Amino acid sequence: xxxxxxxxxxxxxxxxTSSIAIQAQxxxxxxxxxxxxxxxxxxDRGALVRLADSKGHVVLIDxxxxxxxxxxxxxPKLDALYRDLHPRGLDVLAINVDERRGDATAFLQGxxxxxxxxxxxxxxxxxxxxxxxxxxxxxxxxxxxxxxxHIGYTEKTVDLYRHEIERLLGE
Length: 171
Fold this sequence. Notes:
Layout lengths: L2 H11 L26 E4 L4 E3 L7 E7 L4 H17 L4 E7 L4 H9 L7 E3 L4 H5 L7 E5 L5 E6 L5 H13 L2
Parallel strand pairs: 3-4, 4-5
Antiparallel strand pairs: 1-2, 1-5, 3-6, 6-7
């Protein structure tokens, strides 16, 4: 079964789910309190971007796909959040998981953005973060610890991200 099929099934299981914080015991990859798995992916210019490059910053990692309607809705709002809070220490890594890069490229052509977009067509990063639905976002503190994990998107989600990020920027 392809990554797209697995993520779609997880999305169907989460229909109607708003943004939630996930707590799991014991702490495993992708859960609050765990150290964030390393990310090393190429951006749209081919440059290698690593999560380690953001050490000392608060990082919002967003897993998205062009076939995911909530992802499309969230994308410009996350970019606006990045534009607003990046000067204060927020990094956003928008990780596209489309199996065909052309699908992501077609979507991005109509979405001007400043935040870095990374590509993971093989799905290694969502597996490392134990992503169970689309979209999924993970908020990582300045020390590289996952503090919040969210599955799904509603109009209130960006306000929740802002609240969490502002709190972490103040620590």
